Amino acid sequence: MRYWYKPISIFLSINLIIAQVSGGKSQEASKLVHVGYVGESVENISENYQNLVHQKMLSLVNQNFYEFYSPEDLSKSHLKHLDKILLNKEDSLSNDLSNLAKAANLDYIFVTVLNNISEDPKRVMLKGEVLRYQANNNELYRYEMLSYAEDINLHIQAIKKEMIDTIPHSVHTIGRNRTYILAGIAIILALALSQSFADLGKYLAGGDGSEKDTTPPIGN
C-alpha cells in the first residue's frame, strides 16, 4: 500500500496550494489600488513633442503593481470628466478630479500640464507640472517642470521617485497571475502523478517499483 502514499500526498498538498491561491480572491479585491492617467494639456508644442511627452508619461504611470487606466480606457465612459480636467481651471480642478475619482473608482489620478516657452523654434523649453490627485485625502500633489524637451528623462526619474514609487502596491500581485500559477501546478501534478503511477504499475506487474536489475546471475 505504500505506493499509494506518494500520489495521494502530492494530490492533497497541491490542492491545498490551489485553495490558498484561489480562496483569497474576494479579500484581495478590496485591496486593489486603481490609478488613472488623464493625459496632457499642452500649449505651443508641436505634434512630435506632444507624442514624445505622451509616451514618456504613459510609460511612467503604467506600472504593474496597481490597476492602471489609460486615457483611452477612461475616455470610453468618462470623457466629459477628462475634458473638464484638461481645461486645467484652477478654481475647479480639485473638484473635477474628485468627480472623476468617484465615477471611475480611482485612488490616484495623474495629469500633465505643459507649455513651450522657448523663443527658439529649434529648441523646445517645457514649462509646467505633473499633477497627482489622491482621492482618500482629496489632496493634489504637484511636480513642477522647467527644462528642454531633450532633458525630460531627468524629470521622469524624479517623478517616478516622488509620485509613482510612493503609491501603495496592490495585494493582488499573485492573483493577477492566478491562471498561470494554476496551470503550472496542474503540469507539476500531472508529471508527479504519472511518475508515481508508473512506479505503481511496475509494482502491480510483479516488480518492486525500483530500477534494480532482477536478471538472475548466469552460473559458471
Number of discrete helical segments: 8
Q: How far apart, in Å, are the first and last alpha carbons?
A: 39 Å
Average pLDDT reading: 82
Q: Domain count, please report it.
A: 2
**Within the CATH hierarchy, at the fold level, what is the topology of the largest domain?**
Rossmann fold
Percent of sequence in beta strands: 15-25%
Broad CATH class of the largest domain: Alpha Beta
Backbone shape:
elongated
What is the H/E string? HHEHEHHEEEHHH
Query: What is the second-level CATH architecture of the largest domain?
Result: 3-Layer(aba) Sandwich
Structural class category: alpha/beta
Short structural summary:
The protein is an alpha/beta fold.
Describe this protein's structure.
The longest helix is centred in the C-terminal third of the chain and has 27 residues. About 3% of the residues have low confidence. The protein contains eight helices and five strands. It is elongated and about 90 Å long. The protein folds into two domains: 58 residues; 132 residues, 3-Layer(aba) Sandwich (Rossmann fold). Helix content is 52%, strand content 19%. The protein has a five-stranded mixed beta sheet. α1 packs antiparallel against α8 and α3 runs parallel beside α6. By secondary structure, it is an alpha/beta fold.
Helix/strand layout:
Blueprint: H1 2-23, H2 25-29, E1 34-43, H3 47-61, E2 67-69, H4 71-86, H5 93-104, E3 108-116, E4 125-134, E5 139-148, H6 152-164, H7 173-176, H8 178-204
Parallel strand pairs: 1-2, 1-3
Antiparallel strand pairs: 3-4, 4-5
Helix pairs in contact: 1-8, 3-6, 4-5
